[in-house]
Amino acid sequence: MGGHAKTDAVNSGSKDAPTEAEFKKRDANWPVVLFYIHVYILGTYGIYVTFTSASWPTILFTALLTLLGMLGVTVGVHRLWAHRTFTATVPLRVFLMLCQTLAGQGTIYSRVQAHRLHHAKFQEDDDPYYSKQSFMYAQLHGNLLKYSRQQEQLLLTVDMSDMENDGIVMFQKRYYVLLYIGLNVLLPVNTPFQYFGETLGVSTFVGFWLRNLIVLNVGNLVNSAHFIWSIHKGFKPTDSNSIFFITKSFWPQFHYLLPYDYQSGEFGDYASGTGTTMIRIFAALDMAKNLRTVSSVAVRNGLTLAVETKRPIVECIEEQVKLEQNALPANHYLNREKFM
Ligand SMILES: [Zn+2]
């Protein structure tokens, strides 16, 4: 009896100690859900307003802010901060931080932390954008949920020391609400209203809601694009691995293997997208330095080595990358045909 009583006590103790299911459960993040509902409804109406009422200055100004927001997500959060594919001078980091604030997706710090967990747990239960599920989960649903208790614990284990040593990232984290109001609300809404003779309604629908609809959806693609541009099991053999390994297209597999390559475009391209071009321009201006890349020769040699030695692919490719490090000139980004 005493033994049973003890077992019961342990079982009923689950009120305090959560079960595995409770530990992994993700609740809805209602403020975010409400925000997304508004973004979708009012942003869609913003499309109508753009074609019927907005003036050209408003449209061009909003388009510019939209592009800068995307740049903040792809070049800023993803390639510079999450994966350290290059180093940036202080002015460039300030610029990218301001761009990222325009994306309205939360702080650089929180996005980097979540993206690093996404890579560490890619296609596992603890991936915040649970990749085994569906495109819509990664693109939308996963963003509307709070982290599970397990994910919260895992987030604390993500190494963020480089972020904590980056004064610009920490400045944005500290003053995010003020920066958000200034850059993501006042600047895009007030400018058309004050200077382009727009009504407050048109300024709000186009400058805030429609812009957020576009930037949030494009920004979320960073975590969901692999559903669109990756190799799936149903691919014909002729379409698959050989092409991916030689050209490094089919971005996701290459990016999830070797995430530190600055040329990995977020949307399925390699070496030819806007983000890559912008990094090259920043490098030519001496604002971006130490651009990291992996040549196709290193990938091919690494693969051969992996087949011959049966060692892990990434280890073999990285060995080849080290071998060619001295052969790669510092300004390799100016000669991309030769060094891509
Ligand atoms: Zn990534």
From TrEMBL:
Segments traversing the membrane: 28-48, 54-77, 175-196, 208-229
E.C. number: 1.14.19.-
Keyword presence, Lipid metabolism: yes
Keyword Transmembrane helix among UniProt keywords: yes
Signal peptide feature range: none
UniProt GO cellular component terms: endoplasmic reticulum membrane
CDD domains: Delta9-FADS-like
InterPro entries on file: Acyl-CoA_DS
Free-text comment about domains: The histidine box domains are involved in binding the catalytic metal ions.
Similarity comment: family membership: Belongs to the fatty acid desaturase type 1 family.
Name listed for the protein in its UniProt record: Uncharacterized protein
